[in-house]
Amino acid sequence: MGTKWTEEQELAINTRKCNLLVAAAAGSGKTAVLVERIIKMITEGENPVDIDKLLVVTFTNAAASEMRERIGDAISKALEKDPSSEVLQRQLALLNRASITTMHSFCLEVIKNNFHLIDLDPGFRIGDQTECELIKQDILADLFEDMYAKDDECFKDLVESYGGSKSDDNLNSIILKFYNFIMSGPWPEAWLNDKVEEFNINSIEELEGKKWIEVLKESIILDLNNAYSMLTQARDIAEMGGGLEPYLVNIYPEIIQVEELRIALNEGIVKFYNKLMGASFGRLKSVRKASVDDERALEKTKSLRDESKKIIENLRDNVFETSLEEAVLGMKKMYPLMKCLSGLVIEFSNRYRDKKREKDILDFNDLEHLCLEILIDKDEEGNIKPSQVALEFKDKFEEVLVDEYQDSNTIQETIVGMVSRRDVENPNVFMVGDVKQSIYKFRQANPELFLEKYINYREFEDSNRKIMLYKNFRSREEIINGVNYIFKTLMSNTVGELEYDEKEALNLGASYGELNEENVEKEYIDEIENLKVAGDIELNILNKAGNKDYSDDDELGEEEEDLDSIQLEARIIGKKINELMNPEDGSHYMVFDKDLGKYRKIKYKDIVILLRATKNWSETFVDELGTYGIPVYADTGTGYFQTIEIRTILALLHIIDNPMQDIYILSALRSPIFSFTSEEFADLRLLNRDKYFFEIIKEVVDGTYDESISKDLKGKCKYFLDYLNKWREKAAYMPIDEFIWFLYSDTSYYGYVGTMPNGVQRQANLRILFQRAKQYESTSFKGLFNFINFINKLKKSSGDMGSAKILGENENVVRIMSIHKSKGLEFPVVILGGTGKQFNKMDLREDILLHETLGIGTNCIDVKKRIKYDTLQKHAIKKKCELEVLSEEMRILYVAFTRAKEKLIITGAVSDLEKSCENWCKSSASSEDNRINPVNVLKGKSYLDWIGMALTKHKDGDAIRNIGNGDITLNLDDKSNWSFKSFDRSELLETNNNKKEKNNIDIFESNNWIESKKDIKEVIEIRNRLGFKYKYIESCNTPSNISVTELKRAHQEEEFMQESYNIIDNESNEENKKEKIKRKPRFMEERQEEFSAAKKGTITHFVMQHIDLDKVTYIDEIREEVLKMVKKELLTEEEGKVVNVFKIQKFFKSDLGKRMLSSYKSGKKVYRELPFITEIPSSIIEKNLDPKIYGEEKVRLQGIIDAFFEEEDGYVLLDYKTDYVKEGEEEDFINKYKIQINLYKDTLNKILGEEVKETYLYSFYLEKELKI
Fold it and tell me: What pTM does this model have?
């Protein structure tokens, strides 16, 4: 029996002779429809189309292979029924010639067949990505060298404006950003020139009609509508009486004022600006709480009015921070710089193109651009027209079918237009996709191409037609209802770029059937009543503020971080997985297996954990879930270069290339290949403190130190040197891939790692390195030195690579993957984790923003005055880019939800659950219908914010409404079911401790194993041995290594204990008691912030260590330095936000800060964050040790000195503190850290060989220095 198609699917399969857009929602069977359409075209009708007359464009090579395989299987099955069919035999024979391919592969084929038309050497190859990156860096270096030699003033201004303080790396990055961006369009140079010319503006009137002005106006109208809505809500509440009538005196004219602003905006930006500058909100009339009937109504009215006031003030003070005249002058001022920058980009592009031609290589951008060059001609007036090659394709292809059309970009759209008859008679383009799943904006995918056709194509017979496939054959009704509820509530034209209404909603198409004796595995037939399926969609929230144990020492967190929330969220997921696999009530959770046609017990492989990004998350999840006994696998995309086997081989390669590298030579010698010990390293270093280890080893082998070292060590050195010389000789002539495999064999290291834990994985990692070397050999770079650079560049550009994949599809493990990688897949159980992670908007903070339609958004920079501010154009582009970022995030969330077949579990973390619920309720309450106002959706900072907002309106959202005190109109008609649970930090810590205790089984708990006297004697002997007492047991309590912070804390604890005894002895002294209890009771402490005081201290210390001392005078300079650290991923975006740039500036304006800067600028030594190791007598730590026995015992002390600097008459030591300090308690504060500072001073005296003249604490809280 064949597939039973729906009416809409039948239409999508059979509709011909038109451009057809098929909007296929998640799980609607679009691939099956596409294959069936192709099968019918090539096998049915009077004149079947030969399959090589079709162009089928897929998004990935894997999709192309699957498509070809499906078509081949369908033809083969048809041949089994009709073996004599010549049509089927012909199609099967032509299948290998069929153009079922990615766009890049199609372009490559066009270029290979027409290379002569573009003067291209037919022997070209596709360049390795890293090879191309190395070429780019070389070209940039040459380009900048040439520009500096020209001594061009405009170039100097450009460098001053966008270059870094110590290098041109920032400007290099901007040039590459421009280049990569323009190459995603069909006419890169023309686009760049056109957009630069928009800066050449002379009057305010020229602003009107600019595309970016229209976008700015759209953004403003959103704000004005929101302000108007809130004011009318405030008016409605006040008009109900209850003592709020005085507020109407303000609210009535303010409503009129906002309406006048909306009218002015419709008349033009100039009129709006003039009206905005005159807008004002008077002081709100005073209304006493005692005089109103409903205090909550009073607060809500005030809040709504104040929020609308803030919107108008933000437009006036931030968006229009300069006048329109100044905005025009600012753009005109930037015109020469943008002209210079575009010239550099075009020159770079030309040089890069020439270098690739010289090396006979192409990159992926070239494939599309050269293909387009072949497909187009220009007429006499310069207009674009199809070339002869393009016309031949138009005649050849009966139909062009594009899969995943929502992910096409502009240049791909242009190519499709050139090879198809889309814009002429007999249109023949079939496009299928789902704009709600367009999630590749970072690859320049343009969902607007889909949306434009979706809006304009007709749902009836026409040359441009659309068909909707919204029946979902993947998910249970519980999932369908949940997806529809969330996205009807949240997704709109503003956020998501599509209104999610009944027309867009998913319709149930899957049939799972009720659980009964006929459709369940045999072993569970007798337990029908004890089986579970599906269930509510679950929302599990980690409340990071809940029952948190606070540290007594704010500085403690700088060395001992609190348990990370990622770990705690992983524990929630671990609990949930174990509940599914082994429910505590003895029931069994079942999933439906299509292959069996029955329900079976859930397996680990049925579960997937989806994350927005796996970096820094998946590793922690793997570790934590492992402690729950859960088999788990994560394709992290990272960690490859950190594996011990890869680090060892790379260390060997480094010293073979250049043995004068101590770190690499020690790594190689310490490895099992040579097995040197730490003691032997120490012996070698003591022979000569100044030379490289390689030089010392050579001298050892030459006999220079025969009297000072053992024969064994000399033998090891000779063994190493012999091998190193042999390898260096072979590396000079062997191809690098062959040489690496020779190393594996010659050292037996490949076999050795196979015997290590996880040996199969380790060997696979080594094979990956060999394959990488083989790829390198095919590039234009040769030799070991260049290979090492190649690998270093690979690490720098990619950050890292994932370890080799050795896991089969049927392995019974829980998988962790990113939402992007899950696209196109489906899983019985989806756990969506990390939903509390904030959206990444770092790209919006860059100096220059680029937009395909709106052009270039840059700051206005005045080099002489050292100021910069956003141009009006940048405000518009920034707002548009932000909307697109959040729309893409909405679509990514949709993809995540729609991967689930039977069960969806959501987890996330919030800093303070009560505050979050209040915010969600507030956003929901200001929305007048079942949807959340798009303006409030835009305020969401994470997926969890969005989900939380939506659930405040749901019938199952009582818990959120109760916590957030929300008075909200509910959507009672919705059929979805949700359950909510919150977890406190202490609850998860306790769970983990209990889990660990359960695993620590006492093996001597039972005595049943003693069977004879002989056994008893053996037991006694074992117990005597185990009961041995060490003679010097007192010293065992003394650590061999201690940090300054630990030592300081130990002394403080000792003092505290002594003070406690004094309190006990003098209970009547109430004043004494008050002085000793310096902390508030926990119930009085403030709510836990996202970053503890200790964490903020760590961040501040990090910034003080890395900040450029040339850029600490102005707030903007300090803020820019912090942003650079965030861009370089030295700080996370969230960490960057908590840096108090004003307090850092205060330090550098203090006397102590000025002295440090003076030393720096005069060329004297300034050290920051200096780590040290020294020795101190053990008696300092353990005062009870007998000095006669332990007098010579030393303990290693380690620490980090925050800063010290040199002056004419000596050195000054200082230590930064971020603790809370009460005014007037400076002396206590100094005493708290005196031991620590004195230890630093003594250590520094030893290092410098002279006395430190002054020591200081600097309190960021008090903003002053404290001399010790």
Answer: 0.76
